[in-house]
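DATA SHEET
Item: assembly model
Revision: 1
Owner: S.N.
Input lines:
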Amino acid sequence: EAQVTQNPRYLITVTGKKLTVTCSQNMNHEYMSWYRQDPGLGLRQIYYSMNVEVTDKGDVPEGYKVSRKEKRNFPLILESPSPNQTSLYFCASSLSGGLASYEQYFGPGTRLTVT
Amino acid sequence: GQNIDQPTEMTATEGAIVQINCTYQTSGFNGLFWYQQHAGEAPTFLSYNVLDGLEEKGRFSSFLSRSKGYSYLLLKELQMKDSASYLCAVTFNYQLIWGAGTKLIIKP
């Protein structure tokens, strides 16, 4: 089954404790992206990757890191989480992210709480 | 700056028609997406408009006017399962800019 998976689905952590949210897709998609979703603000892009070893900042990259060492995986790293990073996080992938834009397939989401 | 506006909430009756508007001001434009998101779930793709005009897909249609920076999503024969948030997003280069979404409430 074609899908995007994220782990964990729920996470409660404390300020400053490094964490990683994994994202994996099995569709051989080139483009992957991380979003956070907050009430009243909608989806905001954190980082995106156009292909292996190619990443770029989205609208709200501060406090986050990503890597794209393999085509299928795109982990989101919070080196020192803070309470303002409490949010619902979505990973998404699409065939390509360029001019010929394609629909994005979203993972199920990760609800992160930082206390 | 980038700006996408949608109404926060709309209410409609089962069986009726509803139009959800989206206006945008962005520094570039390749196309416009509409996604549906049920509460607690991930967004799912509805439509993608690149050229001006109306695109119809079953009960859902999407319209785009690039000169006016305007799009709408038209939902016909509303069903209770259409209760969800509808997200408008503009894509340019490799980025996606999203509106805050419109929560659609369907009443029997």
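QC remark: Chain A has no helices and eleven strands.
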